[in-house]
Amino acid sequence: MCVTAAIAVVGLASSAMSAKAQSDAGKAHGIEARIAGNAADYEGQLDRALRNMEADDIMTAAQQEAHDIRRQQMQIRGQMLVAQSGSGVVIGEGSAQAAMDQLDTLAASDTLAALYSGVNKAVSVRHQGEMSAQAGQNNLLAANRSASSIERASRLQAAGTLLGGVAQAGGAYYKATK
User: Which pTM value belongs to this model?
Assistant: First the structure.
């Protein structure tokens, strides 16, 4: 009877060690999932910050381009005024004025196009950054859910292993006492 009881105790100890190992493995997998989720979230936040800086650069470039167009318009307008006044044309009338009006219209159109293009690109880049940040947050949430499920499953499996060991030890003890 003593040998059977000893075997039962050894079996129970073995089940307890196996249950502990299963629980620890589940915790380790949960930690790995959380680390991966945190990394994805950080990467998304970083991408959003970088894209916001890129959008700021795009807006600055568009504003600079619009400024350059206006400056060129003023230079050409000045050259046209000098040329017209030197040729004896009455400034402010006729085809000379029409040429200046057309220059002003085209320059204004080009300026608006440059600004509009810059705003569109900046908005698109910012939106991509927001989408990247949201994807990172979604990955973090999914990783946390996965980690919780893994840890819960490993605890249940460990409890089952431990209960199986107790049942075996109880059965062995019962047989030995009969």
Answer: 0.68
> Which of these, 59, 53, 101, 45, lies nearest to 77 by C-alpha position?
101
Task: Check residue 108 and give its pLDDT.
Answer: 95
How sure is the predictor about 158, in pLDDT bands with cuts at 50, 70 and 90? confident
> Domain limits of the chain?
2-177
Rounded CA-CA distance 160/170 in Å is 15
pLDDT of 115 higher than 80: yes
Judged on CB neighbours under 10 Å (0-12, 13-18, 19+), 33 is buried
Are 41 and 143 in contact by the 8 Å Cβ rule? The answer is no
**How is 134-165 classified by DSSP, letter by letter?**
HHHHHHHHHHHHHHHHHHHHHHHHHHHHHHHH
